[in-house]
Amino acid sequence: MAERTLAIIKPDALKSRYAGKILQRIDEAGFTIRAMRLLNLSKKEAEGFYAVHRERPFFASLTTFMSSGPVIVMALEAPDAVKKWRTLMGATDPAKADAGTLRKEFGASIENNATHGSDAPETATFELGYFFTGMELAR
Ligand code: ATP
Ligand code: MG
To answer: Which ligand 1 atom sits closest to the C-alpha of 66?
Structure first.
């Protein structure tokens, strides 16, 4: 059974005009894009998305960053999509990410790290539902 994950192209990557390159890598890796939208998150909407991180020291900075410009949110489908997408992204800190990963190639710092991916199938269910309606995810 194919699995789905929530992927985000973050504001830094859009500002640097890496969106097309990242979408190409998604296609080449064999993911099916099931839903996709460009959004300008408000600070409140970013805080709701990252609610699990609200006690972390970087929460304020992270949510300011994520509401600083447009993002592209996507439902990506593939066998083992959650792990597969996190492998393609690489480590959170681009400086520690493996060669050939998206964060190594397109990330600037541990915060401005180009992409997001759900960290578990249960998280993906919450995160997909945060941005997409049941109708958009029905096919
Ligand atoms: P993501 O959830 O975006 O896929 P992740 O699961 O690799 O990334 P998390 O620990 O969930 O990393 O952190 C969420 C996001 O918060 C990171 O992607 C990054 O943008 C930011 N972040 C994480 N650690 C730090 C830090 N030490 N300083 C600043 N920002 C951070
Ligand atoms: Mg995470």
So the answer is: 20
Question: Domain 2-40+73-131 has what CATH class?
Answer: alpha beta
The ligand 1 atom nearest the CA atom of 52: 11
Indicate which residue of 34, 84, 86, 116 is catalytic.
116
How many angstroms does the Cα of residue 33 sit away from the middle of ligand 2?
20
Residue 115 CB neighbour total at 10 angstroms: 26
| Cβ 37 vs Cβ 91: under 8 Å | no
Question: In a structure prediction context, what are the per-residue pLDDT tens digits for the chain, which is 139 residues long?
Answer: 699 999 999 999 999 999 999 999 999 999 999 999 999 999 999 999 999 999 999 999 999 999 999 999 999 999 999 999 999 999 999 999 999 999 999 999 999 999 999 999 999 999 999 999 999 999 8
Q: Where are the domains of the chain?
A: 2-40+73-131
